[in-house]
């Protein structure tokens, strides 16, 4: 058995939990109260319960064909044989707004008048939208320059290399030595794509032959996420389970690391159930369980966890609430509504009460159980299988590191949060599907 958790501060949550009659205090009267942490003897230890997971099949994607492509006006198909022609270019990449970056390429110094009569139109700059939402349009501003000695006409094409399609916009009478900015819309079609990383490219073709004048893969990848509007993957709690906080960071600035890793892990998945499963497995393998402070007493933010890996094996460290936090941040970043749960449960054979933290992800119809500490997915009965009863659940949301100010050892903004820093705690009690 792990050592009993030391406790230090009073929480109003304790009153509500004790009033329910289902939580057993685990500390003596001489100890100072730590709220919810006082209600159990020890944290749950890591286990591998994957043998009880349902069989999860990866749907096979069918490449977009000409017949389906006709359903989307303006869409053009990419010849798979041409994908190798898209080489990554060097460019200065600067964030300009959430989800958009500015690209500046090396400019040519040649005088247009010294060029021959062959068309020579190239991209010089661009503002690229990289955070895509399914079944919406992403808009990209591509600045082109005519390096030839005569006017040129043609098209600018924006490609999603993985999905095999793109959209084009024509330009006409671009004078020799002149620039022009072309806005190229791109439709992110859910049924013809997948979430995750999206290698993207720009191609310029010139008239009258349609010859490729310039072609390159962009130095950043786009990231595709689920759509959370009313006709797609709507959060049943009005968006609360998609929010960032002092505990969860995404998708921009310093939180881009969370999003990019989530996109890599769930790459090529096509439904939230499958995406959540892949992320659960990733967190299980990426984390190393610890019995040290501050992880035992506090909930640690995703960025703090990523910034403090183990010096021994390089894995992230924490107890079950860090596992749950990294999972929650990752799924939310991809548009999967996810709520963070903590609960107590009693071991039938000994009567010991342990505390545990997991998550549930919304698949569009139901909350799906996910436990990266136990490598368990969509099996809320796994705790009974392991010999426990009285699984008493609380939903924790809206974490604010400055909400609880009575602990002098918990400075605001350090990414180390108390359970009292959660503004909302909803006691679900002994939920039938878990008990």
From TrEMBL:
It comes from the Archaea. SMART domains: TGc (SM00460). Residues 312-374 form the Transglutaminase-like domain. This is Transglutaminase-like domain-containing protein.
